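Hey,

Quick one before I head out. I ran the complex with FE-MO-S cluster overnight. Inputs first:
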Amino acid sequence: MQPNPHMVKDELLKAYPKKTARKRAEQIVVNERREDGAVPEIKANVRTAPGAITQRGCTYAGCKGVVIGPTRDILSITHGPIGCGFYSWLTRRNQTRPEGPEDANYITYCLSTDMQDEQIVFGGEKKLRAAIEEAYEIFHPKAIAIFSTCPVGLIGDDVHSVARDMKEKLGINVFGFSCEGYKGVSQSAGHHIANNQLFKHVVGTNETPRPEKFKINLLGEYNIGGDAFVIEDLLERCGITLVSTFSGNSTYDAFANSHMADLSAVMCHRSINYVAEMMEKKFGIPWIKVNFTGAEGTAKSLRHIAQYFNDAELTERVERAISEEMTAVLETQFAVRSRCEGKTAMLFVGGSRAHHYQVLFAEMGMKTVAAGYEFAHRDDYEGRRVLPTVKVDADSRNIEELHVVSDEKRYRPRKGPDELVQLEAAGMEIAGYQGMMPEMEEGALVIDDIYHFEMERLLEIYKPDVFCAGIKEKYAVQKAGIPCKQLHSYDYGGPYAGFRGAINFYREIDRMVNTKIWSYVQAPWETEEELAEVEIAS
Ligand code: CFM
């Protein structure tokens, strides 16, 4: 029998001082729909209580690591103490595949200004200039990006004026990011800052026309464990042209040329919805939410893209690709279901996977009993319809909102208002996202920015068959005798996107939840000999 989620919530809150418990209560909700079908309100995108162990990262991580990091030919320089550069060096499994041996790939490098006390006291701009010149001499890149770490904001180095000077001097694109780690409550702020600067400095700077018929941008796909390779292959087989991906397996030129696409398909809503909206406003490119996680989601996403372009041949190719892939998918699903049906999962990851991966578990017959995001906002939980009611607090106001207007020459609405209405009437949402909670089971527990203590209590109370999180949680979970699947890095596995990825995932989870090894895990103090020793000693 499943525990009563209201009692679990009380149990978690009981450990906190009154004020913390009151605030925390708004971030821990039981997913019970109201009569009108609406999901409950959840508090999100607020500061973590001091002293709590959070899963979150910093704003610099969200900007440098997440959004810009996967782009192979932008040379990234961290302006700050060496630790920030070092700890963001190759820590995310975003893969890339240069087209030829001559093509640039800087992903394996770690460039930093290695700020010292002297720069903290007297300023670091001089050192930054020298670093950019040195990097240029060595690599001759197309573009250089400068990332600010906490001390940069504190001492007031102006990375943007340095970038402007160097752009002029070197004749390449140089741009900076005010993504100091403390700038927001989590890495989410870094995504927003990265989106803004990419849009300001890169998007729309390459006017090479694209003659292809069905051109899309894939937004919010980062090629973790090779996911993008699977999706790229699938799109190509369907005859869909990928103008750019933000930013898995991406290049500078693809970003610059991305305004040539006719549709933006958004995977991770949290990290990139700003670019999707700005593309629409400035260039007239509509966006739809897609999900290439899970076989059903993949099929639905491909069908929506075909529906958008409304072309018989494209539709036929999409249907052919789906049916070619589905046989193997269904076979594997059938095989794993006999062993996995009814088992339970918990997912606590970033800002979109806690939602997307529930679909994969459902395809295996498994139930998600609790889930939450590290840093997503209310719209990722409850759907974008809540956006007008989301309160903008001081922390969010800290992040620049670009004022984007339609481009006088280049704005070209890809679809007329009537066509958009027709698409919506046919069941396709334009510029919409329903969020995680409407898709979750009634009575499931939803926890925003889960604290480590809460995670440990959930493991004890629910004893889920698998817990999905990241490296910081992995070994604590496994010591509790429960398998942990990393959904950030996929451990060493993947790809998990598309049909082929779904099969990989089914097999991996089947293996993890059905191995006997976890029932043998026992902490030393739980063994009888140890207990006996303690008794003797006392
Ligand atoms: Fe988007 Fe991501 Fe995620 Fe994210 Fe991330 Fe990631 Fe993630 Mo780790 S962009 S929100 S900041 S889907 S790195 S590829 S796995 S926390 S759920």
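The longest strand covers residues 215-221.

Talk tomorrow,
K.
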